Amino acid sequence: MIQMQQLKFSYPQSPFRLSIPELEVKDAEKVAVVGPSGCGKTTLLNLISGILIPEQGTLISCGIDLKTLNDSQRRAYRISKVGFVFQEFELIDYLNVYENILLPYFINSTLQLDEGVQQRARELATSMQIDSYFNSRIDRISQGERQRVAICRALLPQPQILLADEPTGNLDPTNKRLIRDLLLEHATKTNATLIMVTHDDRLLDQFERTIDIERFHEMVETA
Ligand SMILES: Nc1ncnc2c1ncn2[C@@H]1O[C@H](COP(=O)(O)OP(=O)(O)OP(=O)(O)O)[C@@H](O)[C@H]1O
What we know:
Helices cover 32% and strands 24% of the residues. It has 223 residues and is an alpha/beta fold. The strands form 2 sheets. A 5-stranded antiparallel sheet has the order 5-4-1-2-10, covered by helices on one side. It has a 5-stranded parallel sheet with strand order 6-7-8-3-9, sandwiched between helices. Helix 6 runs parallel beside helix 7. Residues 11, 14, 16, 35, 37-43 line the site of adenosine-5'-triphosphate. It comes from Gimesia fumaroli. GO terms for molecular function: ATP binding; ATP hydrolysis activity; transmembrane transporter activity. This is ABC transporter ATP-binding protein YxdL. Keywords: ATP-binding, Nucleotide-binding, Transport.
């Protein structure tokens, strides 16, 4: 369960303010986050993942009040509970598909890279239909295939919360639906909460709920 109450956030020297009186996402719920450009969709995901810290209010996720965590505890929360699929994929061009999927295990000493993880990486790649590219460099595969690599990477540690920031942005309509469906299917299979940002209304029909962030967003005068 993710619970926000009286949450306020702003960036330094920016007129943007996010103000959320109350917002709840249940365990295993599948929600889409919508709203015009600049209204705070990415900011919301970054708050849930602990990358950003609210100025005021409460944000409880997986039973943890994120405000009470120090930097290393916040990082541990992010690594153990949250999978993040970024809009720009954030893959490393000179590594191959397999290495990119395993990347969190190379950079986080708290994640144990054992045979079970490697087996799961292969199974995920097969289910995402990218197993035939396992040894291909990232810069030699298509945009849609790259996005599937990014999803495998986010899913590999079996996160309770899967955050996807406009994961279908640069894709054609068929691939957009495919990526959405793969995210929904895997989140359902692992009982994960899925929160996906999208600008595309045609993708909303398969989600349990849509959250429009525009109502939480305000602009204030800055000096
Ligand atoms: N690091 C930052 N410093 C200052 N202002 C920022 C920073 N990051 C984002 N903003 C501002 O905060 C507001 C919300 O940004 P955010 O990226 O959350 O919006 P968004 O709804 O995800 O937008 P888009 O749909 O265009 O991706 C914007 O006005 C943006 O310019």
